[in-house]
Specification:
With 214 residues, the chain is an alpha/beta fold. The chain has one domain: Aldolase class I (TIM Barrel), CATH 3.20.20.70. The protein is 18% helix and 26% strand. It has a nine-stranded mixed sheet. Helix 3 links the parallel strand 4 and strand 5. The longest helix has 11 residues. The radius of gyration is 17 Å and the shape is globular. It starts with a strand and ends with a helix. It binds S-adenosylmethionine (SAM), the ligand Nc1nc2[nH]cc(C(=O)O)c2c(=O)[nH]1, iron/sulfur cluster and magnesium ion. S-adenosylmethionine binds next to strand 5 and strand 7.
């Protein structure tokens, strides 16, 4: 049984694929936080910007089989876009708690490229077409290679030099959005300064928040 918080058609807002039309499938649940505000301060990941509890979001629900969830995702992709490769981004919560080979296979059969946004602490199933790893504090990485490493910045226990020799094609700093924490801090300026001083790193901004879409 797959538990999906929400699923929607939008543009990828982050990283090297920013601007690309995408179905986002947000799985429920995470291994680093319960998702409850009362637990945030003591969680293994404390700055999350996302509600991933339950299955009550837009197009959310419980799906008994890979075929059912793949069909649900396929129905959200616009018809008559024959020159674009359909693209689905699995996120969460932590998608590697639920994403499996049968679901990836079904999506490939339907012509989709499959992307994943993960905290990197769990091993992925084979067949993922675009893997984005976003380390969280001192939580050990199980994944040390992929397409992009997207580090939320700054994090006291996850400094960029700890990651810069890993086998990723792209290295991004994403300024921490501290508004979910009720804080104010110029993390965009801090990330900008770091990328200018350390050119291996590129700045990525969350364009969906700037532009005002999901
Ligand atoms: C909500 S997470 C879900 C996927 C996975 N659990 C992970 O952490 O990568 C999606 C993306 O949002 C990023 N993110 C979460 N909270 C953020 C924040 N407050 N500011 C900037 N990026 C954030 C994560 O690092 C990750 O790249
Ligand atoms: N537009 C848009 N792009 C995104 N890229 C990563 C997101 C995520 O929450 O994983 C996200 C999201 O929530 N919305
Ligand atoms: S690991 Fe990802 S989903 Fe889980 S709490 Fe952290 S940012 Fe949110
Ligand atoms: Mg998000």
């Amino acid at each position: 049984m797959y538990h999906v918080k929400e699923a929607f058609y939008t543009l990828q807002g982050e990283g090297a694929q920013a601007g690309r039309a995408s179905i986002f499938c947000r799985f429920s649940g995470c291994n680093l936080w319960s998702g409850r505000e009362v637990d945030r301060a003591h969680a293994k990941c404390t700055f999350c910007d996302t509600d991933f509890i339950g299955t009550d979001g837009q197009n959310g629900g419980r799906f008994a089989t890979a075929a059912e969830l793949a069909a649900h995702i396929n129905a959200l992709w616009p018809k008559g876009s024959a020159n674009a490769t359909p693209y689905v981004v699995f996120t969460g919560g932590e998608p590697l708690l639920q994403l499996d080979t049968p679901l990836i296979d079904k999506l490939h059969q339907q012509g989709f490229e499959v992307a994943v946004e993960t905290n990197g602490t769990l091993l992925p199933p084979p067949g993922i077409d675009w893997l984005c790893v976003s380390p969280k504090g001192s939580n050990p990485l199980a994944i040390t290679q992929g397409n992009e490493l997207k580090l939320v910045y700054p994090q006291a226990n996850a400094l960029p030099p700890a990651f810069e020799d890993l086998a990723f094609t792209h290295f991004f700093l994403q300024p921490m959005d501290v508004s979910p924490l009720g804080l104010q801090s110029d993390t965009i300026a801090q990330a900008t300064d770091y990328c200018m001083a350390n050119p291996q790193w590129r700045l990525t901004l969350q364009i969906h928040k700037i532009a005002g879409f999901d």
